[in-house]
Amino acid sequence: MVLFRFGDRARLEALRDTGLLYMNSSTFFSTLERSAIIDPVRTDRFEGSDWILHPNRYLIDFEGPGALDVHGNPQNIKFTIPPDDVAEHTSISLTSSYCNIYCTYAMTEPEPVDDRNLAFGDSFIIVLNTAEFLRRFTAEAKKLGMQYRYDFVNYYDLDQYSGATGPFRKPSRLAYQKEFRLVVQPGVPVRKLVIGNLEDITSEILPLAEINKRFDSSPDAARKAGLSWC
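RE: above sequence
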């Protein structure tokens, strides 16, 4: 596996020079849809959710306090919404799962990078030693007493899926991003985690528009560079 980070050159320079991992919150990407920022590669209205219910598969039951009666006591109300009355997926989010996320592109086999990823910024950097990069990340997270996890993102068919989501599941329309994520808790609006200089385990910063010209993803080139496809 080879990890890439796409973005603006200044942010990648900070990553290489100091190991700055700029980690947005799990709800940042869902709120983009309600903002004036047009960012199709980052916007995901289900980001930060823990569960989604497909509108054609579940009844939605609600029970809780309603209006006050003549004595000032809340009246208990209960109602059910049938699937035919639900226009879109229902998402459920728990504050206990609020976290910060660092996104990378993971190449697990020789293949060109999808051009849609060019919208992430003007530059890219390659992590030449994934194991060491993850070791430095986990060491800093442990030192700061944070919970951490890293893994591939799994992609689901939004037209069919009902079930758990969380930070490692995303709609299949974003599958071209081939994400590998680093996640820490407790979550804050923005976390700047610094893991130290990475010049020894990263490439130079290169133009993202030229990624498929600059990076030879063939098995022979990977072996010569000391990289492995696994």
